[in-house]
Design brief:
CATH superfamily: Aldolase class I
Strand content: 5-15%
Structural class: alpha/beta
Number of helices: 12
Bound molecules: 1,3-dihydroxyacetonephosphate
CATH class: Alpha Beta
Number of domains: 1
Oligomer: single chain
Radius of gyration: 17 Å
CATH topology: TIM Barrel
Shape: globular
Distance between the termini: 10 Å
Number of strands: 8
Amino acid sequence: MNKNLRKAVIAGNWKMNKTPSEAKELLTQIAPLVKDAQCEVVACVPYVDLAVAVEAVKGTNIKIGAENAHWEEKGAFTGEISTGMLKEVGVEYVVLGHSERRQYFGETDETVNKRTKAVLKAGLKPIVCVGELLWERECNITEEVVARQIKLDLFDVSAEDVKNVVIAYEPVWAIGTGKVATADQAEEVCALIRATLAKLYSKEIADAITIQYGGSMNDANAAELLAKENVDGGLIGGASLVAEKFAAIAAAANA
Ligand code: 13P
């Protein structure tokens, strides 16, 4: 993290966990534990939990995010949720292009790009996820894969808008596997993402963009990861469902 240049963002991605009542309970547990956090603290929760979650964090420093959003404003898209719906509920962040959506739900860089532009247009902050498969890392193409995702996912996003984008580097082999990337591996790819952003925009803009690491991040390994210059936060799955663990990660970002 380089706190002089950018703000750390610690975000939980709850995935398909917690009913509305459970969400309220977990957020009520987290709130007092993160009240002094100097980083941005975000909980990205299932759609049906959003209204309850926004209500539960009123008067706290926790922001609420969704886990996806459609690119059209409205229409015949059964099962989808628009940015306008999210905005009205009080959502501030939206996770986009998560590898689980790419793997299981046919998400492509083209649709991630459309969603990213729609989310920015609505004045929400996208957390755009990129990362290589294990096979791609073994073939030594991590650099190409991640640079390509960044270029495609951010295609046609203006220099002004990109300042509101958060990038999450999530190596797919590290998600939910307990196999965390080493701090050096995370730093190497986060630095590469920043270099790609500098080429697409400018060094100044790239320096101001928050780049998170995600993949088996927890209270035990967060400090080492966050100590790296280009790792500006975390997108946390499993450990974000346990109040004490999530709060400990936010505390590690304060250090
Ligand atoms: P885990 O922290 O459970 O590995 O999940 C990471 C992730 O996918 C966050 O988006």
